[in-house]
Write a structure and sequence with these properties.
It is a single chain. The chain is an alpha/beta fold. The protein has a domain of 229 residues: Alpha/Beta hydrolase fold, catalytic domain (Rossmann fold, 3-Layer(aba) Sandwich). The protein has 20 helices and 12 strands. Strand 10, helix 19 and strand 11 form a beta-alpha-beta unit. Belongs to the peptidase S33 family. Keywords: Hydrolase, Signal. InterPro entries: AB_hydrolase_1, AB_hydrolase_fold, Pept_S33_TAP-like_C, Serine_prot/Carboxylest_S33.
Length: 543
C-alpha cells in the first residue's frame, strides 16, 4: 500500500485544542455459536481460610494500598495462593461513613486500583460523586490477571508494535486473510501460556473474582458491601449477588452486559455489539444531517457519502501522521484506522465534535486528530486494538466463556456480520478468535443463572444508545435479576453515571447512599445532549 504525505491547511493549534477536548472525553468514558453451557461446575470443597486483616500502607492523599492473599483455586483453599492489589480511598466524612463501596470499572482489564487513585472530590470528572466519596471508603481490587494483580501478558513489545503497524484491509472480515488471523491467534495464545501458568490462566473467571471480593470484604471486617459496577463490572456484581446475596447492602450496575449471553453464547453477544457499533455511527450521521451544514459542515449535508469517499481515499492513499508531543506517537492513517477512530468516537457523544473535526482535517490531508483518537483508546471492550489491557481482557473472557474451538462457528458468525454490509463489519468479525486457540480450559466454569435472588433490589442503569452494551441487554438484565429496577438514560454513550448529568447521578447516589431506588420507568435525558458541531475553525458559524 502506498503512502502519501500532504500538508494541511488546518491550524495545528486548533488540532491540539480538539485533541485536548477529546482526551477529556475519553477520560470520562471508561465489555453465535451452538456451544452449550457446561453441565457441571465445582463448588469449593471447603471454606476458604479467613484472611488476615489488611495491612494498609499510605499511598496518596486519603489513599491506602495493600495486597491480599487468596487461593488460586477455591476448590483447593489450602493450595497455591495469589496476591491481589487493593486500594482504598478513605471516606472524606468519616463521622458519617456508611461502609465500603466496592467498584469494578469494567473491561475486563480496567484497573480498579487506578480508578480509585483517580478520585478527586473537587473535580467534575472524578469517577464518583463528592457525596458518595464522603460516605464510603471506596475499595478497588484489581481482579486476578489484571493490573497489579498479576497482569496477563501475551505479546512482546516488538509483537505489539508489529500488530499495531499491520496494514488491515477493511474489505476483508477481520482485516486479514484467514491464514494470518489464525497465525496471530496461535501466537497470542502461546505468548499467554509462556508468561502465565495454565492453572493461573484457568482461574481468571468471574466467579473466582466474586470469591476474591468476598475475601477482601472479610479482611476488611465488613458484614456487607455496597457495589457499583460498570460494563464488565455488571457481570462481577450479579455474580457476587448470586453467590453471596446476604452480603450485599446495595448494588448499582451501569451499562449492563447480558450475563446469559456472556456465559453461554459469546458469539451472539459479540454480534449484538457489532450491531450497536453501527447504530452509534448511524446516530452521528443522523445528528450531523439534522444539525445542518452550518453546525456540521462535513459532507455538505450528506455525511454518509462523504465518509465512505474519505475511507476509500485514505485506503488508497494513506496519510502519514508525524509524531506530535502530547497527542500521538505518529504513524499512518489509512481507511481501517480511520474506521476505528470513527467507531470509538461515535460511541461517546462527548467525542462527536472531535469526530467531525477529525474527518474535516483528514479531508484536508491532516490525520493527526483521528490518529489521536485511536492511540488513546487503550481498551476496546469485546475486541479492537491490541494493547496490554486487551491481553488481560481476552484472558478473562476466555476463562468465562464456553469452548470456542469450532472454527466453523467463527466463520459463520463473521459471515453473518459481513452480510449486513455495515461500515464496521471488518473490525467486528473474528473478535473472539483468540479464544478459539486458548491454551487452557476452565473445567469448573460457573453456569448458574445470575439472578441475585436474596440480595436487595438492584438498580440497573441502561443507555438508550450504547456502542458496547445495547439497551435491550439492560432490559433483559432487569427482568433476570430479582426485583431489579431499570433507570434509562436517553442519548448516546457507554455508561451513564458521572457522564450524563444530575438526573442519573442523583438517582445512583440515592441508591448507593440511602438505598432508595427510582420509580419504574424513570428516564433521564443525556446532559449535555449530543452535538456534532466541531470546535473552530471547522464550524460553519464559528468566528
Amino acid at each position: 500500500m502506498s503512502r502519501s504525505i500532504r500538508q494541511s491547511a488546518v491550524p495545528s493549534r486548533s488540532l491540539r485544542i480538539a485533541a485536548l477536548l477529546a482526551a477529556a472525553a475519553l477520560t470520562l468514558t471508561g465489555c453465535v455459536s451452538g456451544s452449550t453451557a457446561a453441565s457441571t461446575q465445582s463448588e469449593p470443597s471447603a471454606p476458604a481460610p479467613v484472611p488476615e486483616p489488611i495491612d494498609w500502607t499510605a499511598c496518596g492523599p486519603r489513599l491506602d494500598c495493600a495486597t491480599v492473599k487468596v487461593p488460586m483455586e477455591y476448590t483447593a483453599p489450602d493450595g497455591e495462593q495469589i496476591a491481589l492489589a487493593v486500594t482504598r480511598h478513605r471516606a472524606t466524612d468519616p463521622q458519617r461513613r456508611i461502609g465500603s463501596l466496592f467498584i469494578n470499572p469494567g473491561g475486563p482489564g480496567v484497573s480498579a486500583t487506578e480508578t480509585v487513585k483517580s478520585i478527586d472530590p473537587k473535580s467534575a470528572t472524578s469517577p464518583y460523586s463528592p457525596d458518595v466519596v464522603s460516605r464510603f471508603d471506596v475499595i478497588g481490587m484489581d481482579p486476578r490477571g489484571v493490573g497489579e494483580s498479576g497482569a496477563v501478558r501475551c505479546l512482546t513489545d516488538e509483537q505489539r508494535a508489529q500488530v499495531a503497524a499491520d496494514d488491515l484491509d477493511p474489505a476483508i472480515p477481520g482485516g486479514k486473510s484467514w491464514t494470518r488471523l489464525l497465525a496471530d491467534a496461535d501466537t497470542f495464545a502461546k505468548g499467554c501460556l509462556a508468561h502465565r501458568s495454565p492453572a493461573f490462566l484457568a482461574s481468571l473467571s468471574t466467579d473466582n473474582v466474586a470469591r476474591d471480593l468476598d475475601q477482601v470484604r472479610a479482611a476488611l471486617g465488613e458484614e456487607q458491601i455496597t457495589f457499583y459496577g460498570a460494563s464488565y463490572g455488571t457481570v462481577v456484581g450479579p455474580m457476587y449477588a448470586t453467590m453471596f446475596p446476604a452480603r450485599v447492602r446495595q448494588m448499582v450496575i451501569d451499562a449492563p452486559v447480558d450475563t446469559s449471553l456472556w456465559m453461554n453464547d459469546p458469539l451472539r453477544l459479540l454480534d449484538d455489539v457489532a450491531v450497536s457499533n453501527e447504530e452509534n455511527l448511524d446516530a452521528w450521521f443522523k445528528t450531523c444531517r439534522t444539525e445542518g451544514v452550518q453546525a456540521c459542515p462535513f459532507g455538505d449535508g450528506d455525511p454518509q457519502s462523504a465518509f465512505d469517499a474519505l475511507i476509500a481515499q485514505l485506503e488508497a492513499k494513506p496519510l502519514h501522521v508525524p509524531p506530535a508531543e502530547g497527542l500521538t506517537p505518529g504513524g499512518t492513517l489509512d481507511g481501517a484506522v480511520a474506521l476505528e477512530a470513527a467507531r470509538a468516537a461515535a460511541g461517546a457523544r462527548t467525542l462527536w465534535p472531535t469526530l467531525t473535526a477529525g474527518l474535516l482535517a483528514a479531508q484536508q490531508g491532516n490525520g493527526t486528530l483521528l490518529h489521536f483518537v485511536v492511540s488513546k483508546v487503550t481498551v476496546a471492550p469485546f475486541g479492537g486494538p491490541f494493547a496490554t489491557l486487551q491481553e488481560q481482557h481476552t484472558a478473562v473472557r476466555c476463562a468465562d466463556w464456553p469452548a470456542l474451538t469450532n472454527l466453523a462457528e467463527h466463520r459463520a458468525a463473521a459471515k453473518k456480520i459481513a452480510a449486513r454490509g455495515g461500515r464496521l463489519a471488518s473490525r467486528a468479525a473474528y473478535s473472539a478468535l483468540n479464544c478459539a486457540r486458548w491454551p487452557v480450559q476452565n473445567k469448573d466454569r460457573f453456569t448458574k443463572e445470575l439472578t441475585g435472588a436474596g440480595a436487595p433490589p438492584i438498580l440497573v442503569v441502561g443507555g438508550r444508545v450504547d456502542n458496547v452494551s445495547p439497551y435491550h441487554w439492560a432490559q433483559t438484565m432487569t427482568k433476570r435479576l430479582k426485583d431489579a429496577v431499570l433507570l434509562t438514560r436517553e442519548g448516546v454513550g457507554h455508561t451513564a453515571y458521572r457522564t450524563s448529568g444530575r438526573c442519573i447521578d442523583d438517582a445512583v447516589d440515592a441508591a448507593l447512599i440511602e438505598r432508595n431506588l427510582p420509580a419504574e420507568g424513570t428516564t433521564c435525558d443525556a446532559v449535555p445532549p449530543g452535538t456534532t458541531r466541531p470546535p473552530a475553525p471547522w464550524a460553519g458559524t464559528a468566528e
